[in-house]
Specification:
The complex is a heterodimer. By secondary structure, chain A is an all-alpha fold. Chain A is built from 5 helices and no strands. The radius of gyration of chain A is 37 Å and the shape is rod-shaped. By secondary structure, chain B is mainly alpha-helical. In chain B, helix 9 (131-140) packs across helix 21 and helix 10 runs antiparallel to helix 19 (309-338). The longest helix of chain B has 30 residues, at 309-338. The chains are: A mainly alpha, B mainly alpha.
């Protein structure tokens, strides 16, 4: 004979376990939904994402190329105007600006055109030129 | 010619005349009930898809009783109580529904086919939106199952029989069939018949209960739609179905066939296999429902249902369904108070997992009081959660109840 209390305990246990598993299932559903949502987004937009990556790479390349272009221009400038160089390298930029304004009014375009055919140079030339200038001054 | 016995010639009447009063009353009562069930099914008060073939079966099996060669009374439909293999082989060649019953019904295959069909019809996206609300309602709507189990035991049923009849509170026909097959094979037929008979009644009876327990002001509450309804991609639904199926099978291997059947239906639906969807959602589901109705009707044999325990089952079945509905409404009220009046408590009735009947009932009731109120998404969510909780309870009963009797 089965004790009634055993049946009641079993019922209470079943109620508890059902609620527990029910909420675990609900939590599981609420967990997998965002995960699968993100996964599905990446999966669905795979082509667009690849394209975006390519665009980003191209932009970075473009940025690098642009910086290189500026340093090249500076080298050309110093080669063309060795007087613009001074001992104090911190004022270099200011002087460069001033020189641009005062000495190269209306000549910049022709300057660019002239230097366009020249060999590619680096910032090292400019530093060497400054060193030479310093030596001259010290002598 | 004067030697011809009219009772022997028209054996339906002859067996009636040769039976005791109790059997006569039961047979005639079941024939009348068959007529009533057909009429109510055709009128839409009961679920017509099951009730019309069931009513036909009830009439035919109780009218078509004949004298068997050994002098006993029987029919040529089926014998659900046969256990001897040789006798079964003989009966499979005589009774025209015996092969269907043996190979489709008594092993629970028909329940699995119906579940597959339900899976193909289910859109789990509703459940994915608000899983906690749906699950809370569904858990509350199992109140009838929780309370019927000890009550049935107190009324003298064994724990296995109590668990089987308590599952009627889950309002899920295939689950009741499966539980009774596993735990109380001796009462499998009456429990299943009672369950399906009452499940048909939910369609007609629950609206009255809802109107009784929920005032019109609350029934007309419109669910707030502040954000657009999110549509989940089929991939998400497939991942959900596959992982949940795996999880539930791990937890309850005894109910794995049912979990598998439900979720394979969901996966087929979401994977867009049109041919399979058409096959499972059409011929298989409706064929299984039709055969289920006919078999349930033919199982309503007067001799079989004269068992006094059937009266207890009738009472416990209606008790379980009633209390489950009240539990669901309590859950609906709970969410109504938690959300400060932004939740329609009628959705609670959809926690009773009679997919998709109770969800349709809930929407029908609400539409009557406020035609602009749409609660179907939340109701379907509670409905699907109800199926899951019923499956969990089936697994728990099948696993734990045998331990009680050891």
């Amino acid at each position: 004979m089965i004790d009634m209390m055993d049946v009641i305990y079993l019922t209470l246990f079943i109620v508890f376990v059902t609620f527990l598993i029910g909420f675990v299932v609900a939590w599981f559903i609420s967990l997998i939904v965002p995960i699968t949502d993100v996964a599905a987004f990446f999966d669905e937009h795979q082509l667009s994402l690849k394209r975006l990556k390519r665009i980003e790479k191209a932009r970075q390349k473009g940025r690098k190329a642009k910086v290189k272009g500026v340093s090249e221009l500076e080298d050309y400038y110093y080669e063309a105007h060795p007087d613009a160089l001074s001992e104090d390298l911190r004022d270099e930029e200011n002087r460069l600006q001033e020189n641009r304004l005062e000495e190269s009014k209306g000549k910049q375009f022709s300057f660019f055109r002239e230097s366009a055919g020249k060999k590619k140079s680096t910032g090292k030339k400019r530093v060497d030129a400054v060193k030479e200038k310093r030596e001259e001054n010290s002598l | 010619m004067e030697n011809i016995d009219l009772g022997f010639l028209f054996q339906g009447f002859g067996t009636l005349a040769a039976s005791p009063w109790s059997v006569i009353g039961m047979r005639l009562g079941l024939i009348a009930l068959g007529f009533l069930v057909i009429v109510l099914g055709l009128k839409g008060v009961l679920e017509g898809l099951v009730m019309v073939p069931m009513g036909m079966g009830m009439i035919a099996v109780n009218a078509g009783v004949l004298f068997l060669p050994d002098g006993s009374q029987g029919n040529l439909f089926l014998n659900p109580l046969v256990s001897d293999t040789n006798e079964l082989m003989t009966l499979m060649q005589i009774n025209f529904l015996q092969p269907v019953y043996t190979l489709l019904f008594s092993n629970g295959l028909i329940a699995c086919i119906v579940f597959m069909g339900i899976g193909v019809l289910l859109d789990v996206g509703y459940l994915l939106r608000k899983p906690f609300a749906g699950m809370f309602i569904a858990l509350c709507a199992e109140l009838g199952t929780y309370l019927t189990f000890p009550l049935a035991n107190a009324m003298g049923l064994t724990p296995g029989q109590s668990a089987s009849v308590a599952m009627i509170g889950g309002a899920d026909g295939p689950m009741v069939l499966f539980t009774s097959l596993c735990l109380s094979k001796e009462l499998f037929v009456p429990i299943t018949v009672v369950a399906y008979l009452y499940l048909g009644l939910t369609y007609g009876g629950y609206p009255y209960l809802v109107r009784l327990l929920i005032p019109k002001r609350l029934r007309a509450i419109k669910m707030p739609r502040t954000e657009p309804v999110k549509n989940y991609s089929p991939k998400i639904k497939i991942i959900f179905a596959v992982s949940l199926c795996g999880l539930l099978c791990f937890l309850f291997p005894v109910a794995a066939p049912l979990f598998f059947s439900l979720f394979v239906g969901v996966v087929i639906r979401e994977s867009g296999m049109t041919r399979f969807i058409e096959l499972i959602g059409g011929p298989m589901l409706y064929g299984a429902t039709f055969m289920l109705g006919i078999l349930l009707g033919t199982l309503c044999d007067a001799q079989l249902l004269l068992d006094p325990v059937v009266l207890k089952l009738l009472f416990l079945g209606i008790f379980a369904l009633l209390i489950s509905a009240i539990g669901g409404i309590i859950g609906g009220y709970g969410l109504y108070f938690i959300t400060k009046g932004k939740f329609n408590p009628v959705i609670g009735i959809a926690g009773v997992s009679c997919v998709p009947t109770t969800a349709k009932v809930a929407q029908k009731i609400v539409s009557k009081d406020n035609p602009s109120s749409l609660i179907l998404p939340e109701a379907i969510s509670a409905n699907i959660s109800g199926v899951i909780t019923s499956a969990i309870l089936t697994g728990l009963f099948i696993t734990l109840v045998p331990l009680l009797t050891k």
